[in-house]
Amino acid sequence: MNVLIVDDEYLEVEQMEFLLRREYPMWKFYRGEDAASALKIVNQANIQLAFIDIRMPGCDGLELSAQCKQKQPEMEVVIVSAHHDFQYARRAIQVDALDFLPKPFTEQELQLALKRFMKKQHYTPGRSTHVQYAMERIRLGYADKLSLQDIAAEIPVTPSYLSRCFSEEIGETFQDYLLSYRIHQARKLLVEQPGLSMTVISEQVGLSSQHHFSKAFKRIVGITPTKYREREL
Fold first, then answer.
1. For residue 24, what are the domain limits?
2. Largest CA distance in the chain
3. What torsion, rounded to 10 degrees, do the Cα atoms 102, 107, 108, 111 define?
4. Bridge partners, 29 (sequence order)
5. Which of 90, 121, 152 lies at the terminal end of a domain, its last residue?
6. What is the CA radius of gyration of the chain?
7. pLDDT band of 60, cuts 50, 70, 90
């Protein structure tokens, strides 16, 4: 997973990266000291999570967050600031920030922000490089026809080895996680694009038919896709 940390205070960046890397050594970290350097990174790398300080040279962190979200709508942003004014928190909500992290933050507060990210994005961190690779392939290619065998061949390792590693690290099988991730994406489409038909949504999340989609959705969520859309809207 790619994480961006934007802050013009070097020690703040060092501390955050140290705390994150200690728990998630396989993540890749990018650093930006101002809006210009951050946007350059966003133009070159696919960022899943960004920690952005409000006060920095150039445009402030909230303006930068809005620009980042415009370029990469799926990116989640955590606003970091020593300023506890309600106006900042309200503007953070307006730019669709995931969380507002006050300085100085504790490790527990940082972990809570990460848990919120993982819950919203249906993300489960793997430890080994093989499982990390499989997770990234699911994230980027869930709409395509994916198989454990094909991913294992790309690494390359044996399918049985990858299957065992995936189950041990993630807590569920590759197929169960892939289906759960597809349903997670379908839930977002049902709400964000209410004009899409069930057939189109099932195709966009990589499920073979509307019947398969509806059956899997009800088993995982507890209600049908139609009732879920009606409830959320």
1. 2-121
2. 54
3. 90
4. 3
5. 121
6. 19
7. confident
DSSP string, 88-107: HHHHHHHTT-SEEEESSPPH
Q: Which residues have CB under 8 Å from 128's CB, separation 6+?
A: 26, 165, 169
Q: What are 153-169's pLDDT values in tens digits?
A: 999 999 999 999 999 88
Give the pLDDT band (50/70/90) at residue 74.
Answer: confident
Domain count of the fold of the chain? 2
Q: How confident is the model over 111-130, as a mean pLDDT?
A: 83
Whether 105 and 17 map to the same domain: the answer is yes
* Residue 123 DSSP code: -
Q: Residue 219 maps to which CATH number?
A: 1.10.10.60
Name residues whose C-beta falls within 8 Å of residue 18's C-beta, 6 or more positions apart in sequence.
Answer: none
Share above pLDDT 90 across residues of the chain, in percent, rounded to a whole number: 55
Lowest mean pLDDT among 80-89, 186-195, 205-214: 80-89
Residue (of 67, 125, 135) closest to 96 by Cα position: 67
Calpha distance 82→84 (Å, rounded): 6
Percent helix, percent strand, percent coil in the chain, to nearest 5 = 60, 10, 30
Output the CA–CA distances (angstroms, integers) from residue 183 to 10, 29, 53, 117, in the order listed. Answer: 40, 29, 33, 17
